[in-house]
Amino acid sequence: MAKIRKASEEYKSPIHPLIKLLFILLILLLMPKLVTSKRRTGVNKRKIKRIQKSLNIVKSNCIDSCDPSKMAENQMCISKCMNEDCHGEIYGEEHGGELELGEVDELRNKAFEQCVKDAIRREQVAARNNVANVAASVDAHDGSIESIGDDEEENDEDEEVVDIEENENNGEELEYMQDEIISEE
């Protein structure tokens, strides 16, 4: 008797599993693009808002110091008040000089505003660095600020330590200096 075969057993196409494999590979290759998240811009937006707020505060203070009733006439006064370095850089003689009354130059206004924002950023970084330096110096003194006389004693001890490090090659001098420091303690 002859065996009866099913149609699926008779004809197995090698293309069908190959298509499945290619489809799986395609999904795997596209998966990282689907999974990657967008870059977080919330932090940058906060920084931008903070700098814009600082710029607005500086500008409003300068508007108050210049004559607020003649806003169009005092535009150069306001820009000088905001930042003299940026004013000289943007509205200096080499860049066409100051604007005339009622003249509007959007490119120079934007460049000036960007220059002031950069100056504000530099000031904020410098202020942060100063705070960090003060905090580090307070930490170096174990959280307390000592008198000047105490600092001089510490400097003498530091000089002895430096002397020891400089004389590492001389074994006898090193032992002598170490014994001297131990006896002082």
Structure description:
The protein is mainly alpha-helical and 185 residues long. The protein has a domain at 50-137. Helices cover 72% and strands 0% of the residues. α4 crosses α5 (84-91). It is elongated. The N and C termini lie far apart (108 Å). Mean pLDDT is 73; it is low at 145-174.
- Taken as a percent bin, the fraction of beta residues is under 5%
N-to-C SSE string, H for helix and E for strand:
HHHHHHHH
Low-confidence stretches: 145-174
Gyration radius, in Å: 36 Å
Structural class: mainly alpha
Mean pLDDT, to the nearest integer, reads 73
Biggest beta sheet attributes: none
* Cα shape: elongated
Could you give the count of β-strands? 0
The residue fraction in helices comes out at: over 70%
Please give the count of helices. Answer: 8
- Terminal Cα span: 108 Å
